[in-house]
Amino acid sequence: MDAPGPSNLSRLSYHNICGLHKVINSVPSHVKWKTRELWYKSDSDDKHTIHYRDSKEIISTLLGNSAHTKDIVYYLRKIFTDSSKTTRIYNKMWTSEWWNTVQEFLPEGATLAPVIIATDKMQLTQYSGNKTAYPHACVLVAYPSISKSVGQELPKKHKSAYIQQIFHNSMHVILEPLKEARKYGMEVVFSDGYVRHVYPILVCYVADYPEQCLVMCAKYGTCPKCMASDHHLII
Fold this sequence. Notes:
The protein contains six helices and ten strands. The chain has 235 residues and is of the alpha+beta class. The protein starts with 16 loop residues before the first helix and ends in a 19-residue tail after the last helix.
C-alpha cells in the first residue's frame, strides 16, 4: 500500500487520521478495538499508542463466521495423485505431516487452529504527524505506532534498540492472549454449531527483510536467520 500523496488524497474515504479511525470503527465486527500506551521508564513523556483487538476474540469470530463454514478444515487430510495412493500431494497446510505432528501433542479431541501473522509498515505522516503504523493483515489485529522522533538525540545504534524494544513490547501486548490459549486451549463455538476445544498455535510469521531484522533485533544488512557475514549477502 503506497502512502497517498496530494494527487490522490481526493480518492480516499478519509482525509485525516480521525477519519481513518472512523472508517475502521464502522466496519462491522464482534471484536472491539482497545488502546494502550507504551513508554520508556527513562522518558515517560514519549508515549507510543497501540490500537489493537483481542487476538483470541478474533480467532473465535473467524471460526464462528457462517461464511467460512465450508472452508474450515478440522483435521489432517491425506490427498493422493490417484486411487493407488502411492504419491501424496502436499498443497495445503492441512495436507502436510506438520499438522499431524502437532496434533499428536494435543489432548484427544482437541482442534488445532494454525495462526499466521504478518506485519508491514506504512507512513501516516499526512494524518498523524510523525507516526509509522503497521496495518496490513488478512484480519486487522492491531495498529502499533512508532514515532519517527524516537531516540533522535541518541546514537544510531541506541535508536535502533529503542525502536526494536517498542516493537517487541507492542507485539507482547497484542499476542499476550494467545500465550495461555496455546497451552490450555479455548472453547470456541464454530459456525457449524459445535463447540470445540481449540489450540491456537503460531505457525508462521510473514515479514519482508526490514521487518525480519526488526523482529530478530538484527542489524540491517546482516542476515536475521544465520551467522553469514554481510559481504556474503545481496540486499
